[in-house]
Amino acid sequence: MRIPHIYQAGTIEVGTELQLGDDAAGHIGRVLRMQPGQQVSLFNGEGGEYLCTISQANKKNVYVSVDEFHDVTSESPLKIHLGQGISRGEKMEFTIQKSVELGITEITPLFSERCGVKLQGERLEKKHQQWQKIAIAAAEQSGRNFVPVIHLPIKLEQWLTQPSDETKLTLHPRAEHSIKTIDKLANFNATAMRFVVGPEGGFTDAEIAATKSADFVDIKLGPRVLRTETAALTVLSALQLVYGDLA
């Protein structure tokens, strides 16, 4: 049986007893119904994982003894930042979850002209917290010891103008370049990339022009038009295959 891999924020020290946070304790105590004596693997996002033994467990509180530290990683050598046009309902959650499984480093949800989702104030903050929890759960499930950052949503033009030395890519069905040819770009960076994907309605002509002004290079994935959630995951998979660790 696989040892559960659980995120626990904060300091974890070998040789100590640790009370788990509410989310970790709830997952272990209520969902998995684990008992004292069973083992869990904890990670705090700072690298490596900690093998622990449950010393006390109920539906509200879980205590573990921290037995060993293992300096292991499943992170890709390729750092990828996705700028994702916010999509409706579960599509955005699906994109975040699967992107984390595929090794994304950062995701910034983007408001654009054709974005059909309106978020602000308390509703925006709750949605952002929900997206980050989805990223944590996906990191747990996929065995990552790093939790990708889900940034607060911003406008597309703000994201495009952020200083960056990454390879910058935009999807376009009639682009000259493909993922296989971006290594010929003058400012190509094989270890750090960012790419932007439009919302369900796509980008306007003015927004496409703005990506070019910000030195983003159009790339194509093939002759078919992909849905926004399919496009993001396809680009990520292709980048990991060619420049990362997907084999």
UniProtKB/TrEMBL annotation:
Organism domain of life: Bacteria
CDD domains: RsmE-like
Any coiled-coil regions, as ranges: none
Reactions it catalyzes: uridine(1498) in 16S rRNA + S-adenosyl-L-methionine = N(3)-methyluridine(1498) in 16S rRNA + S-adenosyl-L-homocysteine + H(+)
Keyword presence, DNA-binding: no
Gene3D superfamilies reported in the protein's UniProt record: 3.40.1280.10, Hypothetical PUA domain-like, domain 1
Family according to the record: Belongs to the RNA methyltransferase RsmE family.
The name this protein goes by in its record: Ribosomal RNA small subunit methyltransferase E
Gene designation per UniProt: rsmE
